[in-house]
């Protein structure tokens, strides 16, 4: 499931929680940096800046809890929307994979010149700082001051650039958040976030979720549980399911729009009399709209049936009672349904684009 195909509440949690994790990563980086500096400065005779470095590190202890509280609030908000930690687990890997093209375009797949330079700057900077400590520190004289100043600038800015580029290139913050969500601590924190919520109401919200969305999440989870060799043989399955789910969601929106239009067409204006010709035109329009709605409903049912067939095949495969041949056959059928839905959605989009174009 792509991020764009995930429901708004899930997309919002993924984005906000990853931003909070990124804050925690940066706070931890600065804390570690200043603590190490304080420890090294304590080895010099004057220990001139030790308390300064410790004070800067302590700032992280003050602001550190805020991202954690924010994470707790995001978990509670997600639970209130009717989604669970298991829903997140089923989409997290797909989210990272879906973001990869944009990430590669912005940060490249391999380290660039700036990141490679920062890799050299960090160890060079720490070596300079250690050399400064060895000769007595910043206050020991010109050599100690020069080595310490160069090392401090090189280690600090090199570390900042390296972490920033590495995080952007590898999606570090989002991967850490995903690992946290799946960990025991994450499970416990979700449990704490749900304290006081009406479980019956939340279950009802989950039951009202669009069928194709629930099936897509279930398929993603079952597919991830398969052995690596099997996933490689079924490498097309995630894409087919995502396309089918996305198009089914658009068709569902179309059905809702047609329902609204049909209801508006059936309205009568009080105190006004309609001619036979006008009544005939209204009834003809109602029949056309109803036919279009029934067609869309039929396509939606085909999509749901195809997704359910894939889910059942994956369940059988997981239990050791199914074969890849059965799943491959249902996957071929799902691909056909997806292509039909895609053509239907494209035709609707083209008509809407033509209507929106000024004459």
Protein model, in words:
This protein is mainly α and 359 residues long. Helix content is 82%, strand content 0%. The radius of gyration is 29 Å and the shape is elongated.
How much is the radius of gyration in Å? 29 Å
Question: How many beta-strand elements?
Answer: 0
User: What's the pLDDT, averaged over the residues?
Assistant: 80
- The helix fraction, in percent, is over 70%
Strand content: under 5%
Query: What shape does the CA trace take?
Result: elongated
Q: What's the N-to-C terminus distance? A: 39 Å
How large is the count of helical segments?
Answer: 14
Class inferred from helices and paired strands: mainly alpha
Task: Write a concise synopsis of the structure shown.
The protein is mainly alpha-helical and 359 residues long. It contains 14 helices and no strands.
Helix and strand layout, with pairings?
Layout: H1 8-41, H2 50-63, H3 65-80, H4 85-107, H5 113-134, H6 142-170, H7 172-182, H8 184-193, H9 199-207, H10 211-224, H11 228-233, H12 237-265, H13 276-319, H14 324-356
Which features would summarize this protein structure in a list?
359 residues; mainly alpha; 14 helices
């Amino acid at each position: 499931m792509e991020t764009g195909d995930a429901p708004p509440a899930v997309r919002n949690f993924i984005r906000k929680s990853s931003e909070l994790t990124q804050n925690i990563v940066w706070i931890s980086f600065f804390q570690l940096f200043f603590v190490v500096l304080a420890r090294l400065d304590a080895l010099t005779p004057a220990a001139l800046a030790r308390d300064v470095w410790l004070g800067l590190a302590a700032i992280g202890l003050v602001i550190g809890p805020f991202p954690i509280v924010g994470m707790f609030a995001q978990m509670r908000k997600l639970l209130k929307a009717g989604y669970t930690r298991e829903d997140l687990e089923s989409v997290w890997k797909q989210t990272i994979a879906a973001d990869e093209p944009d990430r590669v375009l912005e940060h490249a797949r391999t380290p660039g010149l700036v990141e490679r330079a920062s890799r050299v700057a960090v160890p060079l900077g720490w070596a300079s700082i250690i050399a400064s400590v060895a000769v007595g520190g910043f206050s020991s004289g010109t050599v100690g001051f020069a080595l310490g100043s160069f090392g401090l600038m090189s280690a600090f800015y090199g570390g900042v650039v390296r972490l920033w580029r590495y995080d952007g290139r590898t999606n570090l913050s989002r991967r850490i958040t995903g690992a946290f969500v799946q960990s025991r601590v994450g499970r416990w924190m979700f449990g704490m976030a749900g304290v006081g919520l009406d479980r019956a109401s939340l279950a009802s919200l989950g039951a009202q979720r669009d069928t194709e969305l629930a099936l897509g999440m279930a398929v993603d989870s079952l597919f991830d549980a398969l052995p690596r060799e099997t996933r490689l043989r079924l490498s097309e399955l995630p894409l087919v399911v995502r396309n089918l789910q996305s198009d089914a969601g658009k068709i569902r929106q179309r059905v809702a729009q047609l329902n609204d239009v049909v209801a508006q067409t059936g309205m009568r204006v009080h105190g006004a009399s309609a001619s036979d010709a006008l009544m005939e035109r209204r009834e003809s329009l109602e029949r056309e709209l109803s036919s279009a709605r029934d067609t869309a409903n039929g396509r939606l049912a085909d999509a749901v049936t195809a997704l359910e067939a894939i889910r059942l095949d994956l369940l059988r495969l997981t239990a050791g009672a199914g074969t890849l041949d059965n799943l491959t056959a249902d996957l071929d059928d799902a691909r056909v349904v997806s292509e039909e839905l895609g053509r239907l959605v494209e035709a609707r989009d083209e008509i809407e684009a033509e209507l929106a174009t000024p004459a």
